[in-house]
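Submission checklist for the structure archive. All mandatory fields must be present; incomplete records are returned to the submitter.

[x] Identifier: Nucleoside 2-deoxyribosyltransferase
[x] Organism: Acetobacter tropicalis
[x] Residue count: 210
[x] Sequence attached
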Amino acid sequence: MTESAAYPKVYLGGDLVFRKDAQQLFRAFKEACLAVRLHGVSPFDGQDEVEALPPGKETSLLIARLDRGLMDECAAALFCIDPFRRAADMDPGTAVEIGYMAAQNKPMAGYTVDGRTYHEKVQSYFEQAWHTPLTEEKPPNGSRVRWLDADAMIVHSEGLLQNAMVEGFIRQAGGDIAVADDILSAFRAAAKDLAGLIYGKTAVEGSSHG
């Protein structure tokens, strides 16, 4: 039995699979997991068959089934909640995975290299992409001020890094959202947080190696 096989399996979710350096990132993340006695599981693991298939509907649906199967095998998860495709919101597929793991009451932690609030991200996106600022709305009944985007949609999730359902589900599962300037540092902090949920924070502080 390898060292990692003795540790709890942790699903490594996020937009990482779409990045050019995905394999390199996952190797580094798995090493970081081992340092806190976790067994990192990449969405690529066990999906060798996909590489030989042509792109299309059936292949895409197969990937979704395989990813769900990996999550079923894992005891916990670490999720990247970075903004996706230059927009304010994170990868929608990752948001689905967070909900799926939350429904199974599995511990989770998150991480990001973008520490701006969701409001700031939306504002920056509309200013840069559409050259339109957010507008302030003061309801006549004296309730709290609301901010609207160019489509008159309310900018929600005040004080959070992402949509309240995304961040809320992670926090309800016991985890925090780690923020750092580089993704590996953010991931390491999140992995340590998750290991603390599984083993107890005192045990992790005393046994971390790496």
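[x] Structure attached
Curator remark: The chain has a mean pLDDT of 92. Residues 18 and 91 are 10 Å apart (CA to CA).
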